[in-house]
Design goal:
The chain is mostly helical. It contains four helices and four strands. A hairpin with an 8-residue loop joins strand 3 (71-75) and strand 4 (84-88). Helix 1 crosses helix 3.
Length: 144
């Protein structure tokens, strides 16, 4: 499970840095996002290692090239009576990748529990929402 997530996360970030996101790439990006989300659901509950964190390792720049509409509207919490908010596919994708890279840097230096703890914490608190927003926006582009 952990290795599968690491591979999905590393592949996702590599894909974002190397691929121009065009209309033809929408389905592939959507598949990668959904696989990443699914793999995150299977991460085990762990406590972080007692060793010093490896996340001070320089995080590479993320600069996806996106040639599809980026701005969309969403509802932050569908179970409350909130207004529609403005969102950006560009922000979603870069935030997801930044959060994933924190865990990837831990994993790469052998701090596996730190990596899993970081991925799972940020999945629940941050990048999971960005992933779902991006999935909805990409799905709408594909269907529309």
């Amino acid at each position: 499970m952990i290795d599968a997530f690491y591979n999905s996360a590393a592949e996702f970030c590599k894909y974002l840095n190397e691929t121009v996101i065009t209309t033809d790439e929408t389905k592939r990006l959507l598949e990668k996002l959904m696989l990443l989300y699914l793999d995150a659901l299977h991460l085990p509950d762990v406590e972080p290692d007692s060793v010093e964190s490896g996340t001070d390792i320089a995080i590479q720049a993320i600069n996806p090239r996106i040639e599809i509409p980026c701005d969309y509207r969403d509802v932050f919490d569908p179970y409350t009576d909130h207004d529609v908010i403005s969102c950006s596919l560009y922000d979603d994708l870069t935030d997801i990748c930044k959060d994933l890279l924190k865990g990837i840097s831990e994993y790469d230096v052998g701090h596996i529990n730190n990596a899993v703890f970081e991925w799972k914490l940020l999945f629940k608190a941050h990048w999971g929402e960005h992933a779902m927003g991006a999935v909805r926006a990409l799905s709408s582009l594909m269907m529309g």
